[in-house]
Specification:
Elements lengths: L2 H16 L5 H4 L5 H22 L1 H5 L3 H29 L2 H7 L2 H12 L1 H4 L4 H18 L1 H11 L4 H30 L5 H29 L12 H27 L4 H6 L2 H15 L5 H18 L6 H4 L1
């Protein structure tokens, strides 16, 4: 199997793992989204601790600069990203942030093609644009419900609505930065095992998630909101689901994404984030036991065609252009 096909396979596996996160709110509807996110990352850190003990020798080999890089990636790509997204949803509702976040595959690909062309080679724009257009059109189709809500919310635009849009843009910036920076580190350290890098990010996520969890607990108490902290009304279900998502979505998903990052150019890799969208849709329809509508099926088809187009575009090395 070629290195590129291996990369696509790992990106698909990461998308399948990350898509599980979208099922959690359906299984725990009484729990605030922020609490589920912080619980997931707290579980990620706790799972990483025994893994770190098993691979202590390899983790010790990481330099202080490497640990600082892992901390930056976790703080910005995990905690800050979700804080911005959750804030955007609280301020502007779900429709606008969902649509803005949905542009990530296109934004990442364009950014990577501009910034990483010296390292990865440049994907010819005439060949890249069709896949980006297909993915963007597919995102619009699968988010038809959010678009309808967006039209309703736009009629009542306010300062809170505009602030929510800014927070959502901030979330896009965070998760555009994360895969590019993460891929850069992995490409600069080909001797490092992606599994060890995923574990390292989990270890540094633990204190960040713990602080965020405690702050959220304090905020609930300060605002006198009736929620049974620290584990909510269904503690065993909550803890079990957070551990499952922490293992599969956070650790295993990060591991698979790291493997893909070592094998694919970031311009192509960015577009493969649509696997997360496709997986989330599939899980949601399985849970609800219903079929998607006609427009959504068209959108899913566009997403798949866009990905197939993208992985067949070959990067042109910059020295070949000179």
């Amino acid at each position: 199997m070629s290195r590129q096909l291996q990369g696509v396979g790992f990106a698909l596996a990461a998308g399948l793992m990350w898509g599980l996160v979208f099922i959690s709110p359906l299984l725990l509807p009484e729990y605030p989204a922020a609490l589920q996110s912080f619980g997931r990352y707290l579980a990620f850190g706790l799972i990483a601790l025994p893994l770190a003990c098993l691979h202590r020798a390899e983790l010790v080999g990481l330099s202080r600069a490497d640990w600082l890089e892992a901390l930056k990636l976790s703080a910005i790509g995990n905690v800050l990203y979700y804080l911005l997204l959750a804030s955007a949803i609280q301020l502007a509702g779900a429709s606008l942030p969902t649509m803005i976040i949905g542009t990530l595959p296109v934004v990442i690909s364009i950014t990577a093609n501009v910034l990483n062309r010296q390292r990865d080679g440049r994907l010819p724009w005439l060949k890249l644009v069709p896949s980006l257009c297909l993915i963007l059109a597919g995102i619009v189709c699968v988010n038809q419900v959010e678009l309808a809500g967006l039209r309703n919310e736009a009629a009542a635009a306010s300062q809170r609505y505009l602030q929510g849009a800014l927070f959502a843009l901030g979330a896009v910036i965070c998760w555009t930065w994360y895969p590019l920076r993460n891929a850069s580190w992995l490409r600069a350290h080909p001797e490092r095992n992606p599994r060890i890098w995923a574990t390292a990010q989990g270890v540094v996520t633990l204190p960040l998630a713990l602080v965020a969890y405690l702050l959220f607990w304090g905020w609930l108490a300060f605002s006198a909101q009736p929620f049974a902290m620290p584990l909510g009304p269904h503690p065993l279900k909550f803890v079990g689901l957070m551990l499952l998502i922490g293992l599969l979505a956070s650790w295993l998903g990060t591991l698979c994404w790291n493997e893909a990052s070592q094998r694919l150019s970031t311009s192509v890799l960015g577009q493969l984030i649509v696997f997360e969208t496709l997986a989330a849709l599939a899980y949601a329809f399985l849970w609800q036991q219903k079929w998607p509508g006609g427009l959504m099926i068209v959108g899913i088809g566009m997403l798949i065609l866009g990905v197939l187009w993208a992985v067949n575009v070959k990067p042109v090395r910059m020295n070949a252009l000179s």
